[in-house]
Amino acid sequence: MRTDRTRAHDRENPGKSGPPPEFDMVGSVQVAPPAPEGAEAMTILVTLPPDSPGTPPHRHSGPAYGFVVKGAVDFELEGEPARVVRAGETFWEPGGDVIHYQDGNHLADEESVFVVTMFCAPGQPMLTVVGPEELEARRDRRAPRS
Predict the structure, then answer these.
(1) Structural domain for 89, as ranges
(2) How many domains is the chain partitioned into structurally?
(3) 95 found inside a domain
(4) Is 92 a domain residue?
(5) DSSP code string of 51-114
(6) What CATH number does residue 80 fall under?
(7) Closest CA to 101 of 123, 134, 66, 69
(8) How does pLDDT run across 17-62, given as a tens digit for each residue?
């Protein structure tokens, strides 16, 4: 979805020539939970080799917002059906207690790449892997799989 160009960029800029930049809205989050107090924002680039299963089920200490740059990524959060996020699409996860089940490469013959910005609680790791006992205890929270 294309948004109007930012009017401030259309103003005269002495010594500069050429057209103004264009801005395209690629995704947005309507209601976001707050980041943990004192959160550290980090942006990472993740490259998934062909057929990579991605990270095992895990959680983040704060919210994360990402954009698939290339390929397609299998994406599943606790309580939501699994879906495929393709190049040019965004994804959101609230972090905290929500388990992120899948983030693997959907493609068997090409790499997939995504960029994600996470707001991590101070002193906590970027992600924490969830063990089999907890996955079993929370299996009723996982959306039915086809």
Answers:
(1) 38-139
(2) 1
(3) yes
(4) yes
(5) T---SPSEE-SS-EEEEEEESEEEEEETTS--EEEETT-EEEE--TT--EEE--BS-SSS-EEE
(6) 2.60.120.10
(7) 134
(8) 788 888 888 888 776 667 888 999 999 999 999 999 999 999 999 9
